[in-house]
Amino acid sequence: MTSLPKGTARKLGLVIDLDICVGCHACVVSCKEWNTSGYGAALSDQEPYGDEPTGSWLNRVHTYEVTPSDAPAQIVHFPRSCLHCENAPCVTVCPTGASYKRVEDGIVLVNEDWCIGCGLCAWSCPYGAREMDQRAGVMKKCTLCIDRIYNENLPEIDREPACVRACPTRARHFGDLNDPESSVSRLVQTRGGMDLMPEQGTKPVNKYLPPRAKREPLESFASQRGDSDRNAGSRSAGLLDWLDKALERLG
Amino acid sequence: MTAEHSQPYLDCSPKVSDEIRRTTCYMCACRCGINVHLRDGRVRYIEGNRDHPVNNGVLCAKGSAGIMQHYAPSRLRTPLLRIGERGEGKFEEISWDEALDKAVSWLASVRARNPRKLAFFTGRDQSQALTSWWAQQYGTPNYAAHGGFCSVNMAAAGIYTMGGSFWEFGQPDWERTRMFMIFGVAEDHDSNPIKLGLSRLKARGAKIVGVNPVRTGYNAVADEWVPITPGTDGLFILSMIHELLEAGRVDLDYLLRYTNAGWLVIQDSGAPDNGLFARDANAEPLAADRNNGGVAPAKSVRRNAALQGTFRLPDGRSARPVFELLAGKYSHPAYAPETTAETTGVPAGQTQRLAAELARVAFDEAIVLERPWTDVYGEQHTTMIGRPVSFHAMRGISAHSNGFQTCRALHLLQILLGSVECPGGFRFKPPYPKPVSAHPTPNAEFQPNQPLAGPHLGYPHGPEHLLLNDDGSPLRIDKAFSWENPLSVHGLMHMVISNAYHGDPYSIEVLFMYMANMSWNSTMNTKGVMEMLSAKHDDGSYVIPKIIYSDAYSSEMVAYADLILPDTTYLERHDCISLLDRPISEPDAAADAIRWPVVEPDRDVRGFQSVLLDLGARLGLAGMVTADGSPRYTDYADYIVNHERKPGVGPLAGFRGTDARARGRGEPNSSQLERYIDNGGFWIENIPEEAQFFKHANLAYQEWAVSMGFFDRPHPVTFALYLEPLAKFQRAAEGHGERIPPEHLRERIRETFDPLPKWYAPFEQELLSESGKLGKFPLHAITQRPAAMYHSWGTQNAWLRQIHGRNPLYVPGEVCDAVGLEDGDWAWVISHHGRIKVPVARMNALNAKTLWTWNAIGKRKGAWALTPTAPESTKGFLLNHLIHELLPPRGDGLRWSNSDPITGQGAWYDLRVRIEKAQGEASECEPRFTRQISPVGEGPEEVAYGEEWST
Amino acid sequence: MHPAASVIFFTTASGAGYGMLVLLGALAPSGLLPTDRWFGGVALALALGLVTAGLLSSTFHLHHPERAWRAFSQWRSAWLSREGVLACLTYAPAVLFAASWLYFEALSGVWGPITAGMAILTIYSTSMIYASLKTIPRWHHGLVPPVYLIIGLASGAVWLVAVAAGVGEIPGLLLYVALAGIASAAALKLLYWRSVDAAAPSSSPGTATALGHIGTVRQLEAPHTVDNWVMREMGFSIARKHIRKLRRITVVLGFAVPFVVLGGLAAGSLPELPAALLAVVSVSVGVVAERWLFFAEARHVVALYYGRVSV
Known about the structure:
The complex is a heterotrimer.
Chain A: E1 12-17, H1 26-36, E2 45-46, E3 54-55, E4 59-67, E5 74-81, H2 89-92, E6 99-101, E7 108-110, H3 120-124, E8 131-132, E9 139-140, H4 146-149, H5 162-166, E10 172-176, H6 183-191, E11 207-209, H7 221-225, H8 227-232, H9 241-250
Parallel strand pairs in A: 1-11
Antiparallel strand pairs in A: 1-10, 2-3, 4-5, 6-7, 8-9
Chain B: E1 19-24, E2 33-39, E3 42-48, H1 61-64, H2 66-70, E4 80-82, E5 91-93, H3 96-113, E6 118-122, H4 128-138, E7 143-144, H5 152-162, E8 170-172, E9 179-183, H6 191-204, E10 207-211, H7 218-221, E11 224-226, H8 233-247, H9 252-258, E12 264-267, E13 286-288, E14 295-297, H10 298-301, E15 311-312, E16 318-321, H11 322-330, H12 337-344, H13 348-364, E17 367-369, E18 373-374, E19 380-381, E20 384-386, E21 389-392, H14 395-398, H15 403-416, E22 426-428, H16 493-502, E23 510-514, H17 526-534, E24 546-551, E25 563-566, E26 575-577, E27 589-595, H18 608-619, H19 636-642, H20 672-678, E28 682-686, H21 699-708, H22 724-733, H23 743-752, H24 763-770, E29 779-784, H25 800-803, E30 809-812, H26 813-819, E31 826-830, E32 835-843, E33 850-854, H27 871-874, E34 912-917, E35 942-943
Helix pairs in contact in B: 3-18, 4-18, 5-15, 8-12, 8-13, 8-15, 12-13, 22-23
Chain C: H1 5-27, H2 37-60, H3 79-103, H4 111-131, H5 144-167, H6 172-198, H7 205-209, E1 216-221, H8 229-234, H9 240-266, H10 272-296
């Protein structure tokens, strides 16, 4: 009988840095590319050359416009995939036990041979992280590239999720969030890692690092010199007053 | 109700692939290294090559979608001969023998009679070293690639000013820079390296400033955003220069050492050499010694040069140093931030502050590397001083009619801050910096059945290098290197069809193109170009009689060609990313790379470069046949290995010589390609440590460059604050010299060929303003390229079109409110040239006068093996329909091209529009076009790639 | 939420069927309903028929119905599994109850109430499939199980009235039970609507993206060209005017018309069978509308990622 494990030895997950994500979709497509011939059924595409091209993807990138009350609107690119929640509702709603959370690393997986394609796990997920494959009729979701991270047929350096491997801005970090000394945990700590929809009580393992505050302006030359100085200027002399002195300093 | 936990056994080490083949990506122009995993002879997976200098293992969305490109249903399968009308898409399949015979018969006939009747233009290919050589051997004056409508302003301004520009020419010192400003960028130009660089800057807490009307992408992650109004970047930059000069915050030592700041400019109004450099009898430029006022060759005065004052020349005339002219010009209140704010949309305080911040970082946070080096003037330095501010820019500032001067202004700013080729600043990549003197001048003198004397494209030093007939008319079909655009160093591909159609300057017989979607997104005035391509004379013959086109996919342009030579995909071909062309070097290393067939074609297609060599051999072109007339090269791979541009220097610089140990210079090595393959598809050679900075003046670098074969002698660069060739054109426009521009162009040349960077209003705006119509077109409209979709040189990629399958027009909130637009509404966008109907979306993080959309999503019905009602053709659109290759008429009866007057770069981003809400229900973008018949049918209804391997 | 026909039919049909089983099992053994085999036979057949048709229909919703048996396994944690188990288990007492009634003609006072109890638990499980989903605030609501239960009972009662009218006389108690059921259903449903309409959202685009601390969050560009499966399944949206119309249909056909008709029957002023059939048709259409709205009005928090301002 599956239920959530009482705790997991490790909590493998992603830390996604919204401060540097430029919304390039590299993670989205590398994920699709790896996983369509990886764990479980292929990620099929319907009408790939037709009017309504759509398919199964395990990672999606949104673009949001965020408008502070006292500053111009800004843009935040926002990757969204399974957060491998500690309190994963998608596991407990599953009537067949196909959906489960691994006790050794906390990865939430779907045993596709058991999946009846009822879709209830997707209903229970606040994050839209599960997509029903229309060809295979089973639920697809991020596996944290379970067939990469432990894969002895890959060089050790490549044993990380495809999205992390591909990300050109290094906005995605993979590691054990249960280990306070891991690089991901330290990032979460120093950068104030955030949970998505904490009010849902899902306790996501994946964390998001907030965009850093846009810089405070530095003072201008005018304010450095004082306005009177600026207005007085020596332009009327025809040449720049500072030039001779500066050249003298050069020697 | 607790339950026990259980979980199934899982094999976490499934087989990945049979073999990994390492080659170079071609999903856009970045040229990242890729590992192609093969399984059962098919592509299982493509990932970035960790060892590759361009991408360090990362890969963008396009790169990962390579599988869908490679197996796309839109791939052409066999040579095609048109049997319907042009534009219709009706073809019959023919054999390669038939296709090549036909091409040869057309090309040989033109070559024997009048070679200029062939116009050979290539699109976004990366084999210009070959294609230009082929065209030169053929002997037509009419060859260029697509740079004229891409970013020639950037390239030309960079070469003329400092021997190189951004991207392939150089990049920020990502490891050390502390403040980085990025101006309008084309996403396919250096995209992964910029992303990698930005992340390094973020990791170090360096400040990033984005200058762009639109706050997406790189601008979204920037610490500060400058919401510039399109076409005003030059004014914004000159305003910062104004601030720096007012505050005395420029690097005088650097200017004296490495620039023409101290060179004397002749002040003799009305004289033929007014505004040119004062030179001695050996043509050496002169400078005044600020210690004694004596005038002597600048290279001897050097650091003692006077930067202000008026000096008497030996001939009695007076002259003033460049720096004084420069300081005088930009100190003018016209450049004060308070004055420019309204035009640029950048608040004065922000301009002032950014200038102050640049100066603070450059000078107060200067970095010092303890690395001794010797300059080309013989001086030994114990350290390298770094100004850790850097810049990057691309098409956003380039594709304007003031783009050349704007790009110059940016380089001027870099140089004044002393931040070119120093630690923390901008760094060149070998073989750059490469000054004008190291480049050829352009060639166009042609004769039947003879090669041209030299390459088509080059860098004119003055009017003497223009390509003109005796009557002053252009020699080239695109009017490159004519008075209309004298420094058009990349040609003007965007004018070829229009000029050929109008017979201005002359008509042609054969139009031969490669990878250039001229009847759709790679052209201005798309509808007009489609009409020109299919226009007929009264006798029923086509105005452009013959069109040969090579492409791998069923593009919009295919429908307009008479003869199709189907190309391979990028995984099925040989290519070289050559130091002779557009290399992949790094600031610390020279590098080049190859592509090789990691999978074999399953169709009757051939790599275009091999076909070109075959055609050349059949035409008997010099260099392509042996003494007995047989083909010299079996294919492109053979050429890559064995062709020598000069003794010891060939397309690839690595693994040369019989022992494969020679680099740069060396005999051809028959196993060279194998060595590249073994090495991951690329070759890289580090620059010696002492040669890694100040390359323009670093003795060790210059010697290394000669040893590598970049140059035959050292070519140090003196940065051109003042660009003398422009002054020569100004004098010609005043009536001096042997070659004088036609009357109607003189004022424009006098005005725009300012040897010191200047800003002038974009032409479209200026002409609309002149005719009192600017008020009707109050807004700017621009495109951006999405990071996850390159324009259609591939296909509509099954995966990427799920991300970007249609494009709304993003409209500033204020404009939406004024016009009554809401998300999802449809609107008419109207320019002086045309109107399009498009879906709109509201956006606030946007310059308030600017509309924008994604580039090149829209498709013609029937193209790319898509269904005719695909979203790309119903809800995707091009701005191209609004942009004309000519400016609004001035009433003088002349055709003024919509280009930069200096380089001829297409002024895409000068577009002015208004927007009106479309009434009634709308479901499809306008204009609409008839469906083209697909020679390859439609794609499948479902794809489940990799199904057979999934575990 | 996408109102899938199979699920709507399932919940309405099996709801009515279980409602009938509850009433039959609870009331018949005490003689509060007709005890003849005709009534018992038709009523039980109809009830089990509705239940079975509903359950079968629910498997149309599955992509792999051949594996549906696996759904019985997770009864300790999953409401869908509990519902499946209970639905199947209920057949056992129901069959024994039917046998006692129809074969032995001795209405079982054991299997009847057990059937009733199991039926109540089954409806409750069905309702909890929805009510347990925190992601859908309009479902995650205390009134959802009572509404499911009472609508099942009320519609079951109306069906029983019709059966009774068909095979003999309508017992007065049944009419009053039906009237009370309908009235309570109407009251609870109206209360539910009032409550969900006024509920303050707990999630927002700001919490969904964790960017709310910076400012107002609004989607500029969706991650894909056309709606993906998640949006087709959970991004369903219905215009306010349609909601109003469907709520009126629910109230009028689901509650008002059957109440008036049954009231008329109680007053003896209407012909029994046609009136009872009218009530069945009306309540069925009304409850289908109610259930369709239950899905269509329900908004999933995932829509916050896709431009919806609140759910």
